[in-house]
Design a protein that fits this description.
binds N-oxalylglycine; binds manganese (II) ion; 3-stranded antiparallel sheet; Double-stranded beta-helix; alpha+beta; 23% helix; 280 residues; 7 helices
């Protein structure tokens, strides 16, 4: 398998791979190892059916279904649709999903392991996704600051996030709220497979750091979020149709960027791989 590093601290591109063909276990193992080492894998020029996307994603683990079930609009409930497109007046996907820095599903006690995002339709300009290495961000902190973070825990709130990100929408249903109670995670987590430590923060999703006074918590979060997405830790992906990206949510954050949604369509399908550990 030919591979190419994409950025000094994140990302490995795998070339000459067609996932519509059967993928030998040995090749999958290499992809899996690449994900641990580089946190993000890019495979371009794919032409996958929804079923092939789901089946490839399942090799990483069980798949989870999104709490916003109104956006599970393909025949495969494992696929969450992100899009500005509507059919007969009904959105086929969640528009403006991920327009802030986050790690997917950090609002669960056991967050997802990774995500497998496939670009079906993309605008000719805009709509890039930014990815940051939270390991590199953590490792760049000085020792005293690392010590200060030790033992700090933060509350991740999907209900809070939804209210901030989607102010103009109908609120979450009782069933959706029941599926997403607030949870607590450490600010620094250790990757269960590589042993590397990383920051575990995010915009909008964290309501506060436990035990700190309100202003202090807000200031520290703002400082950590700003640091985590410093230019040297961030890879910017300009999508082409047929791009597939797998990322490790245990050690990265990502953020969508805007595009002209009146002029262009964007349709992305995401499979979400179940986590196996509680952050610690
Ligand atoms: C996601 C996500 C950002 C984008 O799929 O989890 O946040 O640019 N996507 O579509
Ligand atoms: Mn996301």
């Amino acid at each position: 398998m030919r591979v190419q590093k994409m950025h000094p601290v994140i990302g490995l591109e795998i070339l000459d791979l067609d996932l519509s063909n059967p993928l030998p276990d040995e090749s999958f193992k290499q992809i899996r190892a690449g994900l641990n080492e580089y946190s993000l894998i890019l495979i371009r020029n794919q032409n996958l059916t929804e079923e092939q996307h789901v089946n490839f994603s399942k090799r990483f683990g069980n798949l989870m279904t999104h709490v916003l079930t109104q956006y599970l609009t393909t025949p495969y409930p494992e696929l969450y649709v992100l899009s500005n497109k509507s059919i007969n007046g009904k959105p086929i996907g969640n528009h403006k999903e991920g327009w802030n820095w986050h790690s997917d599903w950090s609002y669960y006690e056991v967050p997802c392991l990774g995500s497998v995002l496939y670009a079906r339709e993309v605008p000719p300009e805009g709509g890039d996704t930014l990815f940051s290495s939270m390991c590199a961000a953590y490792e760049a902190l000085d020792d005293n600051f690392k010590k200060r973070l030790l033992g700090l825990e933060a509350v991740h709130s999907y209900v809070g996030y939804f209210g901030k990100a989607f102010k103009d929408r109908a609120p979450l249903s009782d069933a959706q709220r029941a599926r997403t109670p607030d949870v607590t995670h450490p600010i620094v987590r250790t990757h269960p497979e590589t042993g590397r430590k990383s920051l575990y923060v995010g915009e909008d999703i964290i309501s506060h750091i436990i035990g700190l006074e309100k202003g202090e918590s807000a200031d520290l979060l703002a400082q950590l979020n700003a640091h985590a997405v410093s230019e040297e830790f961030v890879y910017r992906h300009n999508w082409r149709e047929g791009d597939l990206i797998i990322w490790d949510n245990r050690c990265t954050m990502h953020c969508a960027t805007p595009y002209d949604d009146q002029k262009y369509f964007r349709v992305m399908h995401r499979a979400t791989i179940e986590g196996v550990d509680r952050p610690r």
